[in-house]
Design goal:
The complex is a heterodimer of chains A (232) and B (237). Chain A is mainly α and 232 residues long. Chain A contains ten helices and no strands. Chain A is globular, with a radius of gyration of 20 Å. The mean pLDDT of chain A is 91. Chain B is of the alpha/beta class and 237 residues long. Chain B has eight helices and ten strands. In chain B, strand 7, helix 5 and strand 8 form a beta-alpha-beta unit. The relative contact order of chain B is 0.19. The mean pLDDT of chain B is 91. The chains are: A mainly alpha (232), B alpha/beta (237). Chains A and B meet through helix 5 and helix 6 of A and helix 2 of B.
């Protein structure tokens, strides 16, 4: 009970250490989502629109990579960024940027695969119209991405949900350095093992409220999206 | 769009899929203005024929020429309205605007033309509503507005009123006539003889993938028909 109260005080009094941790978590995960969206959404749409050699391999790969274990991604990115690795010279390891890279690797496949799934049925629906209007490939891509916007936003939020909640990847490449690379999940893991349950609980509560908000937004978006869809 | 419809010419055109001839051989010269109805039973090849005419796909043999130019390279002179009209998941106005974006029309002119097309189709009140929220009749009028907004020489309609009730059909027919009166050539596939009689100036009758008759409407309906054409009329009436 006392622990719960202490946790409550931390949250409601906007404890600066707590805020810094939440802020870094959001910064890392939102950056990863933004990068994944910019790269992954057009790629996912392209996979849905065009038939080219190797397409099926890419579809299977992006689907399979949706379930990549975060620790494995962390390990892979660690090897890339470590001093002996191919990108070692940039000194990115144990920085927030390394964490952004790791989370991007983690959620890019999710955004790609979910965007492809959202665009594929629309492509079938629009194909004849697009041919009849001689729509250019670029406009076709833009049109399908925009008209699949509700599905794409769901993909983005799913990606964000995974990024903000994962611990393995950011722990390995960030190093959980106090005041530098410590995010909500890594802090919870560490503080719990140290017996400092107040901070862990406070962060846990924040994480859960973020998860609930994200899902509420996904639901709201899908409700709006239904108005624009044909009722089958 | 520069120019007007002068002629549609098909020279020994065939459409084959998987070794089967679905359409043809077709030879046709069509020079009548106004509305041409493409009649025939389901499966006679009407829909395939007007898609071929638009240049939606290439013929297996032969050529389709509009004003002497190949169909596939002149698609933008024409508009096609599909039977199951695919509407974009956007507002009514955005649906009408879309072809103009595809054709690189500048924004200010797009707005003007969209407004005019929505007024013509009597959809101005719905311009910001999602297209999916419209009734069946309104959706077809929207599709027709979207076809008309590009100022085509020709509009091709594939069974535009197949799923409409009589009142909506009448409204759509009125709109088709209005558009035709502005000098746009209309080719309309339909299985409804009475609709052809109401709207068309001439008819093309299809049977089993071939053109079995091409006549002006008064002649067609006032003369006693024989053979396959008679079968079609009897079967329908």
């Amino acid at each position: 009970m006392e622990t719960l109260h202490a946790a409550w005080v931390l949250v409601t009094e906007f404890d600066p250490a707590l805020l810094a941790i939440i802020g870094l978590s959001l910064r890392v995960s939102l950056s990863a989502v933004l990068i994944s969206l910019i790269i992954g959404a057009p790629l996912g749409a392209a996979l849905a629109i065009w038939r080219f050699p190797g397409r099926q391999v890419l579809v299977v790969l992006s689907n399979a990579m949706m379930a990549l274990p975060p620790v494995v991604v962390g390990l892979g990115v660690y090897l890339l960024l470590s001093r002996a690795g191919p990108l070692g010279e940039y000194g990115l390891l144990f920085t927030p940027n390394a964490m952004i890279i790791a989370q991007t690797v983690l959620i890019l496949p999710i955004i790609m695969a979910l965007t492809r799934e959202a665009v594929a049925p629309l492509r079938r629906e629009y194909q004849d119209l697009m041919i009849s209007l001689d729509v250019s490939p670029m406009l076709k891509l833009r049109t399908l991405l925009w008209d699949a916007r509700f599905g794409v936003s769901t993909a983005v939020l799913a990606g964000f949900g995974r990024a903000i909640a994962e611990v393995g990847a950011v722990l390995i490449v960030g190093g959980n350095i106090n005041g530098l690379t410590r995010v909500m999940t890594t802090t919870i893991a560490l503080e719990t093992s140290k017996g400092n349950l107040e901070l862990a609980l406070a962060l846990g509560a924040v994480l859960i409220s973020i998860a609930i908000s994200v899902n509420a937004i996904i639901y709201a978006i899908s409700q709006i999206g239904r108005k624009y869809q044909e009722i089958p | 769009m520069a120019g007007k419809f002068q002629s549609l010419v098909l020279k020994s055109v065939c459409v084959k899929r998987g070794g089967k001839t679905l359409l043809g051989p077709l030879d046709l010269t069509l020079e009548t203005p106004g509305i041409t109805a493409i009649l025939g039973h389901n499966g006679a090849g009407k829909s395939l024929f007007i898609k071929l005419c638009h240049g939606q796909f290439a013929a297996s043999n032969g050529v389709v020429l509009w004003n002497g130019q190949p169909a596939e390279s002149t698609r933008r002179n024409r508009s096609f309205m599909f039977q199951d009209t695919p509407l974009l998941r956007r507002s009514v106005a955005a649906n009408v605007e879309y072809p103009l974006i595809a054709y690189n029309v500048v924004k200010s002119e797009r707005m003007e033309r969209v407004t005019a097309a929505l007024i013509k189709a009597r959809l101005s009140d719905h311009s910001d509503a999602p297209a999916a929220s419209l009734s069946g009749g309104e959706k077809q009028r929207l599709a027709l507005a979207r076809a008309w907004v590009t100022r085509p020489q020709v509009i091709l309609l594939d069974e535009p009123s197949a799923s409409l009730d009589p009142a909506s059909t009448k409204e759509l027919e009125g709109l088709v006539q209005e558009i035709s009166a502005t000098g746009v050539k209309v080719l309309m596939a339909t299985h409804d003889l009475r609709q052809a009689r109401r709207l068309a100036s001439d008819v093309l009758i299809f049977g089993a993938g071939k053109i079995i008759a091409q006549e002006m409407v008064p002649v067609f309906f006032d003369t006693e028909q024989t053979g396959a054409v008679a079968d079609f009329i009897e079967g329908r009436l």
